[in-house]
Amino acid sequence: MTKPTLTLDEIRKNVSRVDSELLALLAERRQLSIEVAKSKIQTEKPVRDPAREKILLEKLVTAGKKHELDAPYIVSIFHSIIEDSVLIQQAFLQKLANPDSAQPIARVSFLGPKGSYSYLAAKHFFSRKQTTLAELPCKSFKEVVEIVENGRADYGVLPIENTSSGSINDVYDQLQHTRLSIVGEITQPIEHCILTAVDTDLENIDCLYSHPQPYQQCSEYLRSLGDVKQEYCSSTAEAMQKVAEMKSGNVAAIGNASSGALYGLKPLKANIANQQENHTRFILVARNPVDVTDLIPAKTTFIMSTAQDAGSLVECLLVFRNHGINMTKLESRPVLGNPWEEMFYVDVEGNMSSEEMQKVLEELTSLTRYIKVLGCYPIENVSPTEIELD
Amino acid sequence: MTKPTLTLDEIRKNVSRVDSELLALLAERRQLSIEVAKSKIQTEKPVRDPAREKILLEKLVTAGKKHELDAPYIVSIFHSIIEDSVLIQQAFLQKLANPDSAQPIARVSFLGPKGSYSYLAAKHFFSRKQTTLAELPCKSFKEVVEIVENGRADYGVLPIENTSSGSINDVYDQLQHTRLSIVGEITQPIEHCILTAVDTDLENIDCLYSHPQPYQQCSEYLRSLGDVKQEYCSSTAEAMQKVAEMKSGNVAAIGNASSGALYGLKPLKANIANQQENHTRFILVARNPVDVTDLIPAKTTFIMSTAQDAGSLVECLLVFRNHGINMTKLESRPVLGNPWEEMFYVDVEGNMSSEEMQKVLEELTSLTRYIKVLGCYPIENVSPTEIELD
């Protein structure tokens, strides 16, 4: 029972064959997703159909049992496949709805250098959109916005919200003063590792390089290392660059493993953040707004300032509730130069082209001193359809 | 270009065929993983080989490009496939190393009722172990431990750590007084949803049912709902039971969607927790310790109390560092009835059967007043191998 019937070489050849066949099937299924999207244009049915997805998953779990595959494994694989199918359909339909914005090359500005989390978010956003990136790393969020405003970039990528450190205030302040529109969003996992340029052991590391935020987000693990010096850098990518140049077994950078690979660094220890899961939500800004087809879910971001009495914000929020519009984020920011006024940023699930949302905007306009739609864009977060695993 | 070449019915038939072929390949790949595990017994090589995994992923990304599949998608699917392969090999090798504990039916105690997060963790843990569960829901952590101690259950499942609410103190106190061993661990995602018994809208809900912890973990979203009454229950599963019985469009439970399905509830709104990702780590306890084969990574949990001077804990932690042993968790708990003493719980990456760990135990014994190995068990958390996505 414990003797292998094949040699390791034969087993590996079989694994390679199986993997090639898996890739071909994943590609075929993607093509079929595009066909589904085309048929949805004809029938005007939404891309997602949770009831159908549920039946599909249940059928797969039943079929999987015959192969002795357990339900959690099948569900996890097919959640990824369904997510891909939804995103591919969304990208296809959005391209049709916005023919002008479909360019083969997109010039994208982000807080650099190459390898930063903003860079990874930009790559991730365009990965399913068949677009080549022209990368424009910037030195500040202000520059990211400015070079889109002046036409040197088509898109700017900005971090807007982090699960462990909260909102990125700087970016909110930029949004208050730009004419750019939000045209997309992407959620990027932030995975901090200890990265080194040469093979070494943890006990040899006596100096770390990173941006202040990762130090804060990994404080518990770093405490366990004891007496290790911390050098501050302007970004995690800069820290990686430095450690790569030193080529020493006594120094390490904290940052993302796949960025580290860009600088030839290898992870010595993965997942060192206090919170096991850490995500940053990024937005994409462009000079012109996009149309979101009503076959896919949309999000709208408002900025508004209300009258100066306590109940007026609640009045505004009731408008959303009364129209059955779900709010996904509320953030308040002081108005620079006017300490008595507050600006509110509100994200809701809804498409500005719908009658309901037009009514909401009308009612809000009469309740606020100032209101602006910062953008209406596709929701890229595909929440998985759950089934009973019993 | 936008007209589908197939009817929707034909497209769906093709999708079904592709999905069946995918399942068959996933099953074949699993069988090959067992063959790999058998050959590793012969060659005494560890189950994981990150360098090989990296080459494999890079090859797949290159091959995927020919199919117009993007790298992040391929990497995400194959991270799941590799994780499954590692866990299947670990389960196979552990079964060989512990022939006595390999029963076709495992009697498992957990904090109930059926549908609780402890129940989901138990199902998840045994899903790859070809074991049928005899479920023994309990009313307290104390009862979970007791019925394993008195032989009515083979395993007990206990939550030990939560990303958003920290350690579960009650369970640590139980561990201090039991002779049971920790024989396994499992990390379970905690996904809170608004669940209802009938189709309804969010604005109709005027009363929620849940355990105090989910209310706390979803506080931000709940604030956005405004004036909704909150009823407290002893568990999320009890809340679901109540809401299921009421069959009303005005009430909802907060809890896991797949547990909700057990009670016929449907998610009205998913992912409502403040933190997008929320995990609980569970441990499995049994009357006898397990042996962990040295082909797979092991974790060891110690409990110890040190002399009452400030430097003595640091002395102990230096023992781990000096032997290059990585600490993954440190938790202190007061000793009941003795306010001047503290107990420390320490998790480290290491196998008690190794020479290094035996030396560590020896040194710690001379430095502490009291020390006990609570258990040595396989690490079930398969950290993904990262590659450069450029």
Structural key phrases:
D-Maltodextrin-Binding Protein, domain 2; 4 domains; six-stranded mixed β-sheet; 390 residues; homodimer; five-stranded mixed β-sheet; Chorismate Mutase Domain, subunit A; alpha/beta; 41% helix
Radius of gyration of chain A: 24 Å
Stretches of chain A where pLDDT is under 50 for at least 5 consecutive residues are none
The CATH topology of the largest domain in chain A is given as D-Maltodextrin-Binding Protein, domain 2
What percent of residues of chain A are in strands? 25-35%
**Separation of the first and last Cα atoms of chain A:** 31 Å
Number of helices of chain A: 12
Average predicted confidence as pLDDT of chain A: 88
Largest interface: A-B, 95 and 94 residues
Structural class computed from helices and strand pairing of chain A: alpha/beta
CATH superfamily of the largest domain in chain A: Periplasmic binding protein-like II
Oligomer: homodimer
The CATH architecture name of the largest domain in chain A reads 3-Layer(aba) Sandwich
Count of domain modules of chain A:
4
Q: How many DSSP E strands of chain A? A: 15
Q: Bin the helical content of chain A.
A: 40-55%
Largest sheet of chain A: 6 strands, mixed
Q: What characteristic shape of chain A results from the CA principal axes?
A: globular
Concise account of the structure shown:
The structure is a homodimer of 390-residue chains. Chain A is α/β, with parallel strands linked by helices and 390 residues long.
